[in-house]
């Protein structure tokens, strides 16, 4: 997920899709993400404008992964959701500092 953030920081516009090569043990795998759009995410630091991406899993997979990255704060991850085997895990930003600046939403 950090590599997705780095790629977005280097892009002039939000790409419709992003493919990343990642190591999984001794294997190199490709993780594909598709842009869903931009959303406002409510966090403990306030509302943040975020790019919303969904990981593309194989057809028939019971997994779902989505990530929101703060557009105005170097694409720091502000929310992530993962569903696997009917179990949902959600993480939401509580506080943060980016480039020496404390994150503050609207």
List keywords for this structure.
six-stranded antiparallel beta sheet; two-stranded antiparallel ribbon; 106 residues; mainly beta
What does this 3D model show about the protein?
This protein is 8% helix and 58% strand. The protein is built from one helix and eight strands, in the order H-E-E-E-E-E-E-E-E. The protein is mainly beta and 106 residues long. The chain starts with a helix and ends with a strand. The mean pLDDT is 90. The strands form two sheets. The chain has a six-stranded antiparallel sheet, covered by helices on one side. Strands 7-8 form a two-stranded antiparallel ribbon.
Sequence stretches where pLDDT stays below 50 over 5 or more residues: none
Helix content class = under 10%
Q: Name the average pLDDT.
A: 90
Structural class: mainly beta
């Amino acid at each position: 997920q950090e590599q997705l953030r780095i790629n977005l920081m280097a892009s002039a516009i939000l790409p419709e899709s992003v493919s990343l090569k990642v190591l999984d043990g001794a294997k190199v795998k490709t993780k594909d993400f598709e842009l869903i759009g931009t959303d406002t995410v409510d966090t403990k630091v306030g509302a943040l404008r975020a790019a919303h991406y969904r990981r593309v899993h194989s057809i028939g997979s019971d997994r779902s992964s989505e990530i929101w990255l703060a557009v105005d704060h170097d694409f720091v991850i502000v929310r992530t959701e993962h569903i696997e085997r009917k179990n949902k895990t959600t993480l939401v930003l509580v506080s943060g500092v980016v480039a020496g600046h404390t994150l503050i939403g609207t």
